[in-house]
Specification:
By secondary structure, the chain is an alpha+beta fold. The chain has 12 helices and 10 strands. The radius of gyration is 21 Å and the shape is globular.
């Protein structure tokens, strides 16, 4: 089995995170994945969800610290309610979120088949959302200069504990019987490389078009779902400095297509647990020096007072190692 596994890793370009994830899986699941690869390696690489997950997964057990950037003004309410409000993919501040990949796919499709029928079918799968998807963004870099634009603090969390806390809240313990309101939690590496994006989208579109011509509904559905996954993973190369990893929380929607916990100012949110046990540190960066009447020192003092007031007694507050 090991030889075919090595072939699968090489052909499907599975990175180290995905390889470790595969070996930690059950024997039964590993056999199913390998069997699918042996049956059709090309199709498995581009539209078989378990292998695509291995390609893009962020292995939460491999890493010890992840960082989420925010402004200190928002911290009090988060500490008080012990929730992070996680935004819906369709309502993010980034206007390209979820659209970039579909736009790129549409451009590629036009080069292959620009008939009205195909374009209508593409628009239909683009509008069809199998999940109500929410995105919680992190990075592995505690000194990420690009993400400091999002705030003067970096909250430090343990990736595996964070994953487990989301799974406990949103995933049915009997995983085979997921229902409306349950969610699949996908920790993923964001892909900024344009050539990788084009390769995966182009080959998946070829499979999608072939499935239409042959009437293969199964391949049509799998290719459509793969393109939905790409919309959650692919971002414009101009944002590569963010080095984002993200927890995608794919809620099984209700009859109206919703899976939110609460609406804030009309926007759908999930209430992701933020408990004292999940937050080891808070790092204040030099964006604090540009806050009116504040500095990195005054905001560090404020944050220390905040966490003491709300029982985050084991959370360390420190200043960034950067000089500016």
């Amino acid at each position: 089995m090991l030889n075919i596994v090595d072939q699968m890793f090489q052909y499907c370009e599975i990175p180290e995170d995905g390889q470790q994830y595969f070996f930690n899986d059950s024997i039964e699941n590993k056999k199913i994945i390998v069997s699918a690869f042996k049956h059709n390696s090309f199709m498995s690489k581009y539209i078989y969800m378990p292998i695509l997950s291995l390609k893009f997964v962020f292995n939460t057990e491999k890493h010890k610290r992840i960082y989420h950037y925010l402004n200190h003004e928002n911290l009090t309410s988060i500490l008080k309610c012990q929730y992070f409000y996680v935004g819906n993919q369709q309502e993010m501040n980034d206007s390209l979120e979820g659209k970039y990949s579909w736009d790129l796919a549409f451009d590629l499709l036009n080069e292959k088949d620009n008939s009205n029928q195909i374009q209508k079918m593409f628009e239909e799968i683009k509008r069809r959302r199998p999940f109500d998807s929410y995105i919680w963004s992190f990075t592995l870099d505690e000194n990420n200069m690009a993400l400091q634009n999002y705030g003067d603090l970096a909250v430090v969390m343990n990736p595996q504990d964070t994953f487990e806390s989301l799974a406990r809240k949103y995933t049915n313990s009997d995983f085979e019987n997921m229902n409306t309101g349950n969610a699949y939690i996908l920790p993923l590496h964001v892909v900024y490389d344009y050539q990788t994006q084009v390769k995966y989208l182009s080959n998946t579109l070829d499979i999608w078009l072939d499935s239409i011509n042959s009437g293969n509904y199964g391949d049509y559905q799998d290719a459509s779902l793969a393109m939905y996954l790409y919309s959650l993973v692919f971002k414009s190369p101009k944002y590569h400095q963010e080095e984002e990893i993200r927890y995608v929380i794919n809620k099984i929607p209700d009859i109206n297509g919703n899976g939110y916990d609460i609406k804030i100012n009309g926007k759908k949110k999930l209430e992701a647990p933020f408990l004292p046990s999940l937050c080891s540190e808070i790092i204040v960066n030099h964006k604090a020096d540009h806050v009116k009447n504040e500095s990195i020192d005054t905001i560090q003092t404020k944050v220390k007072s905040m966490i003491e007031n709300y029982g985050f007694n084991n959370t360390i507050v420190r200043k960034t190692d950067l000089e500016y």
